Structures are given as C-alpha cells and as structure tokens.
C-alpha cells in the first residue's frame, strides 16, 4: 500500500487504525506459564493452509519442533491449483487467485522461493440483458462517478469515529445515501459482490471502503504465480519438512493442563508447549476446547459469516473470447467470467465462472454436466458456439466445503470492530490466526501475515527466555 501523504497529518489506514486500537492478534498478551529451562520448544499448528504453513515455516527457522495437523488429505486449504487431465499444462485456481501489488509478504515469499509472479490483470466487459459491451463501452453514470470520487476524498480524512459510523452501514445503503442511482447500485452490486462473495446489501460499508481506497489500483487483482499458487504451498511444506505435516488428521480436542497442550486428532494425542490454530471461525465448533472457549468467543465465531462462492473452471478447445485479458461481469447465473490461463501459452484455454451468493447456491445444486451447460449457454450472447467449445469442467463450491463452510469471512455492518477483536484473543496458550482475523482480511496475504506474526510472537518469547 502506498500512501504519499505526510505521516503526521494523514488518517490511519484500516490496518494502522486497528493496530493502534490495540486489537492486533499477536499484540494481545500471551499467557505462558514458565517454561522449563531447555533449548527446544514445540508447537502444534492446526491447519495446513497458508497461515498454518507460514507459521510453521517461521517456527522451523527458529528450530522449534513443529507438528502440523491438517484435516484434509491435501495441504493448501483454500489455495488449490488445478490442471485438467486433457491439458495438465494449463493451470487454474479453484481457490485463492490474485496476489495483490500491496501484498508485501506474498511477494517476498515468492521472491525467496524463486516463484515468478505473472501479470493477471483484466479488462472487464459487461453483459446485461443479453447485450455485451466491451471495455470502454460501459460505465457508471456521471452522478455516481462524481459521488464516489467525493467520498474517496472524504474517506481519507476520516478518523476513528467516522470509521465506526461508516461500519454501521451496508455498502448498498451507503452508496445510495451519497447519490448513486438505482441503476448504478445494481451495477455496483454485480461488480463489487464478486469481491465480497455476497451482495453489497450485506457487507459493511467500512470494510468495502477500506478495500477500495486502501488497495492497489487494480484492487489487489494484480498477479498470479507462474505454475499455480499451490507452488508456494509446496515450497513452504518442503522447507518445513513433510515429516512434520500430517494430513487426514481432523483435530477434535485441545486440552490445556499444567502449561502443556494436548491436541487429539485421528485418535492420536500430540503434546506441545504451544498451539497455533488456523481453523476458519465457522468450523471452530467442531473442536472441543478444555478448558472451554469463553462464551463470547464461541458466540463471535458463530456469528461471523463466510461468503458463498463457487468457482467453475471450464476448459475450452479455443480461446473464443479473444483478448487474453478478457473478463466479463454479467447479470446471469454464471456471474463473473475471467480468463484463468492468461499468459499461459496454447490454443486451448480455461475460463472461470465465479458466482456468489444465491447464484453460487444454484450452481452448486446442479450436477457437473448441467452446471457446464448453464455456464456455457450463459455465454451465447458473446459467442453462439461457446457451448460446443467446452471440453471439461471442474468446480468447487466453497460454501459446501466442510472445513471452511464458505470462501472467506465477510463482516456484516457493525461486526468489524466488534467480532474481530474477540476472535483474535488467545485462549490460554492457543493462538488464533488465519485470513478471517487479518488486516488483509479475505486475502492470502492476511493468512500469511497472521501466521508469521503468531509464530514470531512465540519465537521471540523463546529467544528471550534462552537469553535470560
Ligand atoms: C474462491 C476463493 C477465491 C479467493 N480469491 C482470493 C484472491 O484472489 N486473492 C487472495 O489473496 N485470496 C483469495 N482467497 C482467499 C485466500 O485463499 C484465503 O484467504 C487463504 O488461503 C486462507 O488461508 P488460511 O490459512 O487462513 O485458511 P485455510 O486455507 O482455510 O486453512 C485452514 C486449514 O485448516 C484446516 N482445518 C479446518 N478444520 C480443521 C480441523 N478441525 N483440524 C485440522 N485441520 C483443520 C483446513 O482444512 C485448512 O486446510 C480466495 C479464497 C477462495 C475460497
């Protein structure tokens, strides 16, 4: 994130504001009973998504004994690159897609592991009522554009009180209030709901404004890893060591007694000095905590909702959409299409249909063939032969994923400043991390930053003790 305004006069950004509000997860005091004097410390990391792997990586570097317990049979969590058997060279993403230009830790890790970030920016066409308008042929009304620009300027002068007030609104109501017409609102909903995974009638206006005004010009939809985002997952696990990562191990119990933590998974007990839990809030109730989580923390986890998003990657024998940077916002069920295999050579290509909310539920309810028919027929106004070019489809409906129950968290009006600080609180020696708790909430960057920060807090402590 670049901010050119002088430090002493500018208003804190969302990330800075939350830190100064004293709610950053690892800033909260960790309650450790005295360690026995020894040289090796141990930690159990629950979940092998990016936050868990980033945490384990930092702990390993500090020579901690690390055990990663992952419920699924694969690592990566919500990062999941995929290649079709018909053309495995072409890689698409069924989970996290874009690395943002402001995502410093993601960029640094890719650099460290020699992973090239390729341009993954798109120009958006618009299809409404069966009419396709190419980039430059459609826009918001002058009234809405002027209102948005005025708000952008005002937002940057906001202090904590104004931000709290903004958080009471949903994004739709706020835009209406500042002067958006009905048609502009409908268009904005089609466009912005792909960012949040739900209609903008449900999303905090503060969370939305922060997302648009504190990020890169392309809204952090900048790059993708050459060869697929799972390369970073695999690179991290390689450094951690596969012996330390156990898949097919859903954690059922976390017990804390006498300064030690016992985690039960797959019928086995694992004992350690500390625990980092990356489990998404909605599925936290599958774990029995002993002593139990405070009631407020359990309630906050129940209240936090996750976006309904289905990603449908369709392999086509021809790139009939023309431009390599093709994307299309639409008012049909398939919702948003983009060219997943941009910059990947070949005649064949993959288009991803990214549908949210009820549209995601409708598509998730169909079998693969029917889903493919809907997605390709929705493209008929663009190309009358589109359905004939389709070779195969692969989908993930994240709202049906048992270990996430949604694509990423979204904070409803009034929740950002209330729920998140509660969810960030450590429970004894269990630290909570993950996308949902991050300042970069909803992003891979947020997952990595929270994981590394928690591990850093632990290793900082162990270093201090060794020095003492
Ligand atoms: C459709 C979609 C699109 C996205 N697009 C982008 C994007 O363009 N850019 C971007 O930066 N981010 C994007 N994201 C978000 C990004 O993928 C996530 O923020 C990030 O991967 C989350 O990492 P995490 O470690 O917090 O959670 P996860 O990856 O969910 O990791 C948590 C792990 O815990 C495991 N687990 C759960 N319960 C248990 C249990 N009881 N015991 C053991 N293990 C358990 C899970 O299986 C999982 O592997 C997208 C996500 C989705 C789903």
| Number of contiguous helices | 15
Helix % is: 25-40%
Give me the oligomer status.
single chain
- Give me the secondary-structure category: alpha/beta
pLDDT < 50 stretches = 1-12, 17-37, 464-468
Q: State the CATH topology of the largest domain.
A: FAD/NAD(P)-binding domain
Ligand catalogue: flavin-adenine dinucleotide
- Biggest beta sheet summary: 7 strands, mixed
Globally, the shape reads globular
Kindly state the mean pLDDT as a whole number? 91
Percentage of residues in DSSP E strands: 15-25%
Overall CATH class of the largest domain: Alpha Beta
Tell me about this structure.
With 468 residues, this protein is of the alpha/beta class. The protein folds into 3 domains: 14-76 and 229-304 and 411-467, FAD/NAD(P)-binding domain; 81-122 and 221-227 and 308-400, Polyamine Oxidase, Chain A, domain 2, CATH 3.90.660; 142-213, no CATH class. The protein contains 15 helices and 22 strands. Helix 6 packs across helix 8 (205-213). The two termini are 38 Å apart. Bound molecules: flavin-adenine dinucleotide.
Which characteristics define this entry?
seven-stranded mixed beta sheet, disordered C terminus, five-stranded parallel beta sheet, binds flavin-adenine dinucleotide, FAD/NAD(P)-binding domain, Polyamine Oxidase, Chain A, domain 2, alpha/beta, 3 domains, 33% helix, 468 residues, disordered N terminus
């Amino acid at each position: 994130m670049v901010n050119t305004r002088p430090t002493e006069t500018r208003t804190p950004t969302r990330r800075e504001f939350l830190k100064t509000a004293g709610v950053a997860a690892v800033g909260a005091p960790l309650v450790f009973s005295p360690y026995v004097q020894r040289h090796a410390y141990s930690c159990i990391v629950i979940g092998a998504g990016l936050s868990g792997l980033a945490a384990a990586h930092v702990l390993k570097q500090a020579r901690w004994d690390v055990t990663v317990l992952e419920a699924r049979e694969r690592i990566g969590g919500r990062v999941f690159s995929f290649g079709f058997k018909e053309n495995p060279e072409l890689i698409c993403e069924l989970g996290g897609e874009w690395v943002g230009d402001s995502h410093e830790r993601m960029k640094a890790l890719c650099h460290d592991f020699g992973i090239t970030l390729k341009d993954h920016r798109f120009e958006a066409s618009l299809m409404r009522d069966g009419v396709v308008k190419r980039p430059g042929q459609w826009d918001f009304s002058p009234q809405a554009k002027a209102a948005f620009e005025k708000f952008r300027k005002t937002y940057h002068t906001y202090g904590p009180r104004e931000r709290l007030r903004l958080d009471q609104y949903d994004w739709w109501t706020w835009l209406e209030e500042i002067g958006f017409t009905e048609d502009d609102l409908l268009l904005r909903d089609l466009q912005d709901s792909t960012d949040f995974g739900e209609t903008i009638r449900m999303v905090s206006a503060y969370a939305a404004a922060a997302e648009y005004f504190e990020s890169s010009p392309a809204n952090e939809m900048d790059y993708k890893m050459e060869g697929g985002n799972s390369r970073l997952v695999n690179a991290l696990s390689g450094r951690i060591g596969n012996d330390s990562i156990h898949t097919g191990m859903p954690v059922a119990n976390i017990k804390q007694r006498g300064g030690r933590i016992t985690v039960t998974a797959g019928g086995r007990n694992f004992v350690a000095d500390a625990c980092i839990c990356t489990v998404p809030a909605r599925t936290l109730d599958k774990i029995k905590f002993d002593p139990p989580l405070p009631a407020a923390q359990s309630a906050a986890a129940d209240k936090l909702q996750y976006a309904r998003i289905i990603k449908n990657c369709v392999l086509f024998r021809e790139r009939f959409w023309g431009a390599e940077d093709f994307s299309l916002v639409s008012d049909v069920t398939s919702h948003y299409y983009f060219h997943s295999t941009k910059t990947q050579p070949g005649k064949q290509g993959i288009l991803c249909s990214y549908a949210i909310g009820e549209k995601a539920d409708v598509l998730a309810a169909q079998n693969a063939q029917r889903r493919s028919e809907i997605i390709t027929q929705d493209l008929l106004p663009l190309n009358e032969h589109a359905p004939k070019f389709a070779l195969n489809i692969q989908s993930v409906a994240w709202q049906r994923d048992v270990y996430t129950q949604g694509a990423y968290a979204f904070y409803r009006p009034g929740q950002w400043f209330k729920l998140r600080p509660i969810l960030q609180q450590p429970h004894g020696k269990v630290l909570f991390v993950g996308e949902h708790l991050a300042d970069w909430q909803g992003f891979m960057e947020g997952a990595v930053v929270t994981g590394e920060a928690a591990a850093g807090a632990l290793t900082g402590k162990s270093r201090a003790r060794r020095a003492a």
